[in-house]
Structure formats: C-alpha cells, structure tokens
Amino acid sequence: MFRIQNQSDGKEQEFQNLAALLYALEGEEKRCLQLNMRASFYLFHLDKNEEVLESMELTIPSQEDKEVQELIGEFGRKGDAKKPFWKRSKSKQQPQAINSSNSNDSQSKTSFSTLLKGLIWWFPVLLSLASIYLSLETLQLVKTQSQVTPKVETVVTNQKADVFCRYFISSYFSQSPNLGDYLSEKLSIDDLKTDKVTPVSVLLESQEIKGDTTLVTYVVNIKEAQDHVSSKRLTLAVRADKKAQYGYLVIKKLRLTAYP
Fold it and tell me: Is 56 helix (H, G, I), strand (E, B) or coil?
C-alpha cells in the first residue's frame, strides 16, 4: 500500500498499488502544469501492518522535465527494503501533528458546548433573581410613599389660613391702607412698617398648628429697586376669628429674615 501527503496542506491519500499511485501523481503533474505551479509530496511505501518500508520526497513537475515514473525510480518495487531510521521518524511526526490539532479542536468544541449549557441553565435563575429584586424595590418604594404622604397632608391641613396669609402678604409688602383689617387689637399698623416691594412668588414652606394658633412660614421672592430680586423667609402667627373681616387675624409681629 502507498500513501502520499501534500506538504502544503497536509492532505493525505492512500493507494492499493504502485500503478494507482503513479496515475494520481501524473494527474497532479498535469494540474500543476495548467496552473503554472509546483507541488511537493511525501511518498510512503507501507506493508500490511502499515509499517513504513520506504519513503521519499517528490516535487512535480520536475525542473529537468523528467516523467513521474522516472522521478520515483525504484520506489515501491523493493518490498523488503527498510527505510532509514531518521526518515521513519520524520514520516511519523506529520500524522501526530494532525492528530494533535484534531484533539485541540475537539477540546475547544467540548468546552464551548459546556459553556453554552451552563449559560442556558443559569439564565432562568438570573431572570428569577432580577424579578425578585424588582419586586422588593417596588415594595420599598410603596412603603416610602406611604410614609411621606402624611407629612404633605399636615402642610396643607389649614387651607383657609393659607389663603388668608397670602392676601395679607400682598397687602403687607404694598403697605396697603386696609392693612389694619388683618391685625388683632394687640398690633398696630406701625408694627408692620416696611419698604414697598413687589412679591414675585410666595411658596409655603411649613405650617404648624398649636391650639387655636396657626404658625405659617413662607419663602417669598420680592423684586426691589432696579429689578433686583431677593428671597425672604416670612413667618406669621394667625388665629381664626368669626368677627374678623377675612375670618383670621395676625396676632403677633411678623418674623422676616433672609433666605436661606
């Protein structure tokens, strides 16, 4: 039996007899002539146990224009000839390299398959954990909102007092003549003297009820001379009074400070 191995790509072919080998090599020679190229091969003569009897290296087409049969000479006709030890070792190294490459490819495929199976198994687990995390976050958000809501209600509990104070603030900063209608008997207009300015915005900061007295604090943006705008914190103490023109009266002096 004969075997040839292409030196360029490692491809191997086997033939049962010398005639089949010669026919294949002549076909390769014609192909190389058509493509204007050369090809090199290892030739192996094997016994029934596939032990190498002899080997040689062949390059076709020959530079001396020799026929393939002439190039191989007596190769394959010496059934009892044994090839030298160094050639035998060289011939065996090529299949080992190929087998090593095939083994590495097989290991790579096995590793990829294992990784893919692991990802498929872990994906539902990770999805479940993400769902649980989102549920806990939503529950915590609902609890937080429920705790904040009562604070908002305490700020707007006494809406009537808030409306009264806003009317008063407008009259106070404009120093309106009817400012006395907002004051209790303990206060006079002289207690509320201030420079005339224009309120730009009035924001409720806090509201606290102590008995029949409501303490209301606002942040007021006022426009002063030359269109300069500044922020003030204004705290009022008011009390409901049925006899009052607006239903409430300011019962203490104002507390006006810079903000913040």
Answer: strand
**Residues, the chain:** 260
Question: What would the two tokens of residue 66 be?
Answer: 């020799």
Residue in 56, 58, 44 with CA at minimum distance from that of residue 15: 44
Give the 3-state secondary structure of residue 238: strand
Model pLDDT for residues 228-254, shown as the tens digit of each residue: 899 999 999 999 999 999 999 999 999
Say which amino acid occupies 111: S
The ranges of the chain annotated as CATH 3.10.450.540 are 159-258
Q: Is the Cβ–Cβ distance between 179 and 187 less than 8 Å?
A: no
Contact (CB, 8 A) for 54 and 75? yes
Tell me the one-letter amino acid at 170: S
Collapsing DSSP states into helix, strand and coil, what is residue 221? strand
The stretches of 57-84 forming alpha helices (DSSP H) are: 68-72
**Strand ranges (DSSP E) for the chain?**
2-6, 12-15, 39-46, 52-60, 198-210, 213-223, 229-240, 248-250, 255-258
- In this structure, which topology does domain 159-258 adopt according to CATH? Nuclear Transport Factor 2; Chain: A, (3.10.450)
The pLDDT value recorded for residue 129 is 84
